[in-house]
Amino acid sequence: MLLKDASILIVDDDPDVLTAARLLLKSQAREVTTEKNPENLRSVFSKKDFDLVLMDMNFNSSINTGNEGLYWLRKIRELGSKASIIMITAYGDIDLAVRSLKEGASDFLLKPWQNDQLILNIKELLKKRAAKSSAAQLHTAGTSGLLGHSEAMQDVQKKIEKIAPTDANILVLGENGTGKDLVAHAIHQQSRRAAKPFIKTDVGSLTESLFESELFGHTKGAFTDAREERTGRFEAAGGGTLFLDEIGNISLHQQARLLTVLQNRQVTKLGSHQPIPIDIRLICATNVPLDELANEKRFRKDLIYRINTVEIILPPLRKRTGDIELLARHFVKQYKEKYFKSNLELDKKAIDKLNHYHYPGNVRELQYAIERAVIMSDGEYLQPGDIVFSPIESRDTESMKTPDSINLNVLEKNAILLAIEKNNGNITKAAKELGLTRTALYRRLNKYDIE
Questions:
Q1: Which one of 35, 65, 150, 427 is at 20 to 30 Å from 444 when CA atoms are compared?
Q2: Average pLDDT of the segment spanning 100-125
Q3: Which of 65-74, 291-300, 303-312 has the weakest average pLDDT?
Q4: CA distance 322 to 352
Q5: 54: closest CA among 124, 108, 5?
Q6: Other C-beta atoms within 10 Å of 264: how many?
Q7: 219 with 269: CB under 8 angstroms?
Q8: Virtual CA dihedral for 426, 432, 434, 438, nearest 10 degrees?
Q9: Which pTM does this prediction carry?
Q10: Which domains does the chain have, with CATH numbers?
Q11: Which helix H or strand E contains 55, and what residues bound it?
């Protein structure tokens, strides 16, 4: 995004600062709005969102905690704004400004600012914002934001279309890299809550001590490091969708606390006795198979029933016949634009190599393989040698050793494909590993129509 296309909000209780910033930016931005009283932010954001917000760290307000900037930053995020936020601070507030970056601010700027530096910072942020938006579009297609023409993905698409308009709790199941977060976003975007917040939390990574504070919030002084009140994720998602990722990895104690909240439809912040009603749509995800999740030594069945009104099972990429080439061409298109290689295309042999791989890392692995290939490629076509799969994925070799058929022709064809893949398309090396001459291997390639 260019500065001339941006809408900017400036929030500061000093009228001189507002005037100076507005005069500087009004000739360069599409729209500049000023606001002296941060108490009016809810009203301001109810009318429209902004691309960028410039906000002071301190106001002459009733909050008077010294952390006003942090407070209003959180409020803006709770209102669902996607704006990039630059905090404007005096020298003594730098520690607060740094903390604001952890809370979701994009940058901070010292008073008095240099006009040229402010313009440069804004342009850089808008450039990053545009790049982030472009990356998000990698996964945007059709009505649900998920690419795929295979029967398995069509079933997923249909299920999303049916359940999205409801408030049913959803459990998304699938291996790592299959796109469970994309499904959650798609459900939210097609729901009646689409204009409200979408809040994601990786609950599997939360320690016992952070779990309740992060999800339910805490009051100032609730524990040693609670220097200010915190809004929990349940409250922040009010009216919208709360996505709890890696739900299968939380402890039984955490499960009990979560179940209580879902049953009562209210949360109580740590350090408080005042319950807060919640209005959310809950989506959970895990890579743990449902039959393993149903083991009561691992996961409470009563909680499973609470979070699993409907489940969506995402298929691994190796079972999505026909989608690999579609996804690969999509990623090539995106990355050749990102890395300024507009003439780059996929060679047919590269497509064959992609189709013959089993993708333990699923779509994520394919995406990273294509990005690497685009970066490293020197020609106009991506060749098989340009496609290098990630060594960090633990390959499911056992599935390769257990054939679906014992037909000799099928076994021979699978062995040839495996040898070719293992040797990155090098026929001489593949023939040697199979114990064949190159001529004998070529005869078998013709026999099984392998190109």
A1: 150
A2: 85
A3: 65-74
A4: 12
A5: 108
A6: 12
A7: yes
A8: 70
A9: 0.57
A10: 3-136 (3.40.50.2300), 154-313 (3.40.50.300), 317-390 (1.10.8.60), 403-451 (1.10.10.60)
A11: strand 52-56
